């Protein structure tokens, strides 16, 4: 079944070229089913790229999904046009009285700032608090996961000596959560961040289980037992060349960043990177949609 999105959304053409079934709002309105209502709080600077990456993973399911894109009203984007935001995005005030089956909160390149220093932090805390009552399950990604762990549980983040960038091996440490159904005992996933959360701090809450971790990259996946809060510290949605583009950008800006680990063949940044995490990225999002959202959300949501 398709992801429903506006006809002119740039992601649509990309996904259709990959033979992913997408549907216009008009056609979806004639379907005699209730689609899952999924909101995406897109905090990434280049929003069109992030939209495409996330919608690609959300499409890998037999469920019909109705997408609502949200941006921060309290932040002026310098990398996404006002016309694009006006055409395809809503703000939290537009949807604050609504209920959603699922919510995705993306990462953002602000992890070296204290949370309170982020200009849209007050608005994001409103969304995080609202999600606990108006959303069946929320999937937090990278800095979005750090923000939620801090807001909901008081878990702090720690700055690392250098940027953590690369594709790292992880092992399953949890067994009870349906989010990891079908996962290999060991799998790889990308990370790209300057800060970290510690497994001991997460587990000390007594409310969150660490489901997968890496000896090099630390916690990758954690969730509450009821699946209403899922935290992913990496970027399973990344394209094959995303880390390469980030590395080139950082080098052009004169930042002392390392070559992404375990990413380029022979650690040669001129080599063509290969996507080795696509399968588990799709599986993670499909499991979240199925087990945490679809099987738990009521057919008749609250008004």
Automatic annotation (TrEMBL):
<dbReference type="InterPro" id="IPR033752">
    <property type="entry name" value="MetA_family"/>
</dbReference>
<feature type="active site">
    <location>
        <position position="237"/>
    </location>
</feature>
<feature type="binding site">
    <location>
        <position position="249"/>
    </location>
    <ligand>
        <name>substrate</name>
    </ligand>
</feature>
<dbReference type="InterPro" id="IPR029062">
    <property type="entry name" value="Class_I_gatase-like"/>
</dbReference>
<comment type="pathway">
    <text>Amino-acid biosynthesis; L-methionine biosynthesis via de novo pathway; O-acetyl-L-homoserine from L-homoserine: step 1/1.</text>
</comment>
<dbReference type="Pfam" id="PF04204">
    <property type="entry name" value="HTS"/>
</dbReference>
<dbReference type="GO" id="GO:0008899">
    <property type="term" value="F:homoserine O-succinyltransferase activity"/>
</dbReference>
<feature type="site" description="Important for acyl-CoA specificity">
    <location>
        <position position="111"/>
    </location>
</feature>
<keyword id="KW-0028">Amino-acid biosynthesis</keyword>
<dbReference type="GO" id="GO:0019281">
    <property type="term" value="P:L-methionine biosynthetic process from homoserine via O-succinyl-L-homoserine and cystathionine"/>
</dbReference>
<protein>
    <recommendedName>
        <fullName>Homoserine O-acetyltransferase</fullName>
        <ecNumber>2.3.1.31</ecNumber>
    </recommendedName>
</protein>
<feature type="binding site">
    <location>
        <position position="192"/>
    </location>
    <ligand>
        <name>substrate</name>
    </ligand>
</feature>
<feature type="active site" description="Proton acceptor">
    <location>
        <position position="235"/>
    </location>
</feature>
<keyword id="KW-0486">Methionine biosynthesis</keyword>
<dbReference type="GO" id="GO:0005737">
    <property type="term" value="C:cytoplasm"/>
</dbReference>
<dbReference type="InterPro" id="IPR005697">
    <property type="entry name" value="HST_MetA"/>
</dbReference>
<keyword id="KW-0012">Acyltransferase</keyword>
<dbReference type="GO" id="GO:0004414">
    <property type="term" value="F:homoserine O-acetyltransferase activity"/>
</dbReference>
<feature type="binding site">
    <location>
        <position position="163"/>
    </location>
    <ligand>
        <name>substrate</name>
    </ligand>
</feature>
<keyword id="KW-0963">Cytoplasm</keyword>
<comment type="function">
    <text>Transfers an acetyl group from acetyl-CoA to L-homoserine, forming acetyl-L-homoserine.</text>
</comment>
<comment type="similarity">
    <text>Belongs to the MetA family.</text>
</comment>
<keyword id="KW-0808">Transferase</keyword>
<feature type="site" description="Important for substrate specificity">
    <location>
        <position position="192"/>
    </location>
</feature>
<feature type="active site" description="Acyl-thioester intermediate">
    <location>
        <position position="142"/>
    </location>
</feature>
């Amino acid at each position: 079944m398709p992801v429903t999105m506006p006809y002119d959304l740039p992601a649509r053409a990309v996904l259709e070229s990959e033979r992913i079934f997408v549907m216009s709002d008009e056609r979806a309105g004639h379907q005699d089913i209730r689609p899952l209502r999924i909101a995406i709080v897109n905090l990434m600077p280049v929003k069109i790229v992030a939209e495409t990456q996330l919608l690609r993973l959300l499409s890998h399911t037999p469920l019909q999904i109705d997408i609502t894109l949200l941006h921060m009203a309290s932040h002026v984007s310098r990398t996404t046009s006002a016309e694009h935001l006006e055409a395809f995005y809503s703000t939290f005030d537009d949807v604050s009285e609504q209920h959603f089956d699922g919510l995705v909160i993306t990462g953002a390149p602000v992890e070296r700032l204290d949370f309170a220093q982020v200009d849209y932090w007050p608005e994001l805390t409103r969304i995080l608090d609202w999600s606990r009552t108006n959303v069946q399950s929320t999937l937090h990604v990278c800095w979005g996961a750090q923000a939620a762990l801090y807001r909901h549980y008081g878990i702090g983040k720690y700055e690392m000596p250098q940027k953590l960038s690369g594709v790292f091996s992880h092992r399953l440490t949890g067994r009870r959560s349906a989010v990891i159904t079908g996962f290999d005992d060991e799998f790889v996933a990308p990370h790209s961040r300057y800060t970290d959360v510690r497994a001991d701090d997460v587990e000390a809450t007594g409310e969150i289980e660490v489901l997968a971790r890496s000896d090099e990259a630390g916690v990758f996946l954690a969730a509450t037992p009821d699946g209403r809060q899922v935290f992913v510290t990496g970027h399973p949605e990344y394209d094959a060349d995303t880390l390469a583009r980030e590395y080139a950008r950082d080098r052009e800006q004169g930042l002392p960043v390392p070559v992404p680990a375990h990413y380029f063949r022979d650690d040669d940044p001129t080599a063509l990177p290969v996507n080795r995490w696509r399968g588990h990225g799709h599986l993670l999002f499909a499991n979240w949609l199925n087990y945490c959202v679809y099987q738990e959300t009521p057919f008749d949501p609250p008004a």
